[in-house]
């Protein structure tokens, strides 16, 4: 039996993504800092490396408490995740039922379609207008 035989149907058609090498070009599509790591951030990380041998708090309670204090809100008003990709995935897991249709303007972030599909949704693409604005009327018709 092959692994593909037991995979969810929504995952079978996906190809592995490999980050293409582009030589000396500056990548603007991978959220990479073209200036390199911030030296102050690197020093801070070196000082705080102790204690990283365990799992962090699953819900980032410390961060959510600090944000709640800062903005005068409750901890429950904040959601924290490991980057924007995870948060986009969580949104589709939370709000998309199997077979739901999501409309995405194109060009757009490629992982929207991926997370919609992985969570059982369907995708409809709508081109931006000639002046690169959302075509709201076309999106509402999908």
Walk me through this protein's architecture:
With 142 residues, the protein is mostly helical. The chain folds into two domains: 38-80, no CATH class; 82-142, no CATH class. 38% of the residues lie in helices and 8% in strands. It has a two-stranded parallel ribbon. Helix 5 packs parallel to helix 6 (111-118). The protein starts with a helix and ends with a helix.
Record the SSE blueprint.
Blueprint: H1 3-6, H2 9-12, H3 39-47, H4 61-71, H5 84-95, E1 101-106, H6 111-118, E2 122-127, H7 136-141
Parallel strand pairs: 1-2
Averaged pLDDT, please?
Answer: 88
Secondary structure category? mainly alpha
**What count of helical segments does DSSP give?**
7
Residue share in β-strands: 5-15%
Low-pLDDT parts are: none
**What is the element string, with H for helices and E for strands?**
HHHHHEHEH
